Amino acid sequence: MEAQQASPDSSSEECTVLETLPGKGTALICSQHKGKVSALYCLACENPVCVDCMNGEHAEHPTDSLENIVDQHLAALQDRVDSAKNRLPQIREAVQCLRDILQQLNSQRSSIEEDIHSSFSELHKTLDTRKSVLLMELEVTYGLKQKVLQAQLDTLLQEEAAINYNCSLTGEALDGGNKAVILQTHKDVGERLSDLASQGLPLQPEENDQLDLMMEIEGLRKSIHNLGTIVTTNAVASQTEVSGDGLEQCVVGQPATVIITTRDKSGGLCKTGNAIISAEVCTPGGSVADGEIVDLKNGTYEFQYTVKKEGNFSLALRLYDQHIKGSPFQLKVTSSPDDSSPTTTAANSPGSRSRQKGVRRGGSLFSTPKKKVNPIEDDLIFRIGTKGRNKGEFTNLQGVAACSEGKILIADSNNQCVQIFSNTGEFHSRFGVRGRSPGQLQRPTGVAVHPNGDIIIADYDNKWVSIFSSEGKYKAKLGSGRLMGPKGVSVDQNGHVIVVDNKACTVFIFQPSGKLVTKFGSRGNGDRQFAGPHFAAVNNNNEIIITDFHNHSVKVFNADGEFLLKFGSNGEGNGQFNAPTGVAVDVNGNIIVADWGNSRIQVFDGSGSFLSYINTAADPLYGPQGLALTSDGHVVVADSGNHCFKVYRYLQ
């Protein structure tokens, strides 16, 4: 019988098959010795063998019971299965993290896409406005010049006609030779001819024909060519490194510094700035030290902080909300340098070079925003903010609230936080962590303050409303499973939470406990319908006022959701809207409305009759969103397109 060709990794010892024997169950049968059971295991060849095999070619090899070896392999396999399964929670956590990042990336893309469309639409609008102004200026200038020249021309033509007429009469008399006619003509026309001959006439042009157009197109074209840029980095927290003396030890009252060096997924150095880094120095009680982050614009960042008391602190450094490698670090703060020596050094770090003097630093998580006061006389008192992600900086700010304690609250949507300021514009605090878990914020768009001091936040992307204490500690959420895209929130006189669901085109009213009181509205253009409603306000009669964005109107309902009245239509005239957004009510029941598309603020009485504008001419609004009345009677508005909020005088 011809032998079967073996595979390259086979051997003659691999000679067992699995068979069922009568009365013996399933066993390994030796193929070399028919009917023999392989009850042993050759340790040298790592194969099952039978007794006959041991008397033959395996005679010199050590063996063990096959059952023992199987038990050992079973235990080893189970250990490996358990080890593999232990990786699953880490994988699931990483998967969720990546999904959150992808969701945020998609959200950022959508937001930036919206910003690009909005910005260029506004540029088109600005260009069209400028075109209209230039054409109007041309017509006015032309009209003035033409009027002067035409008047001069008419005068000269009249004089020419008068001279021709009188000369013609005189010529006829002279040609006739009639002495009586000549005497009469001299009497009637002679003096008139003398006046015409001696009269001063506007013979020199009293205007010129210059009408030129100066358009610096090339500079504008270059500016437009370089307009806007997409900012990002490839930095990841798991590869980013931290160094410096301030990493583990510092002295009370003296600045300590750490250097953050960003790296990509392969460990390569990132060579550009603009990464989103946050830093917190905390005690177990939660207090924060003073400090600031400086972007050195080369992929490295300097965090300098000062601690005012001794003790053990925690330094948390995050890149895109992820802990940087090694974070949080434990800090020991001593009263003098001699109390302990630093365990790390920044001598060889990228940031060990000395700080240049006289360099103006950008904003940071710990810097204080500067208040910009209006130099031109209008209703603007001051503005706060620029585009950014640090304290006093905003990225797509939306909702605004004010409370009786003299504070202004801003829902900083794309920075996933709420920032709090005093009525005079001084920064107070901020809170919020990006995420999709309870207590985290994904896209805060509306904010309100409950009479008990709680802060209520509409989270559009998380599809719920979060409730925080006045100190920013998470307490509860409501509307989960019911809401599709909450935009604005308010509180009525019963303490109920009013939620404007932009996506569902519905207004929900909840108790603070989360119990639904009532809801009203659907998609459409009827009196009780909405098309992308935005914000809500409540007047002294506990009536609910809703801005209906795409229906270009404001609608008023009673506390049970029954329609009372509406006002507004699409347009640019007094009392018209181009997508209303923020709304507030003063003590007299007057309704103040942010007119997003027309970039203005209008004031109406309680019945919807137009009263006036807030004067915003000196520093024009650009897509205003949320709006509120401060406790000292001013109007505060989120100027979303200009990445700031503004406070205006308002006479009630």
From TrEMBL:
Low complexity composition bias: residue spans: 334-345
Name of the protein described by the UniProt record: Tripartite motif-containing protein 2
Entry-linked InterPro entries: 6-blade_b-propeller_TolB-like, Bbox_C, Filamin/ABP280_repeat-like, Filamin/ABP280_rpt, Ig-like_fold, Ig_E-set, NHL_repeat, TRIM-NHL_E3_ligases
Keywords recorded for this protein, A-Z: Coiled coil, Metal-binding, Phosphoprotein, Repeat, Transferase, Ubl conjugation, Ubl conjugation pathway, Zinc, Zinc-finger
Catalysed reactions, semicolon-separated: S-ubiquitinyl-[E2 ubiquitin-conjugating enzyme]-L-cysteine + [acceptor protein]-L-lysine = [E2 ubiquitin-conjugating enzyme]-L-cysteine + N(6)-ubiquitinyl-[acceptor protein]-L-lysine
Record family assignment: Belongs to the TRIM/RBCC family.
GO-annotated molecular function: ubiquitin protein ligase activity; zinc ion binding
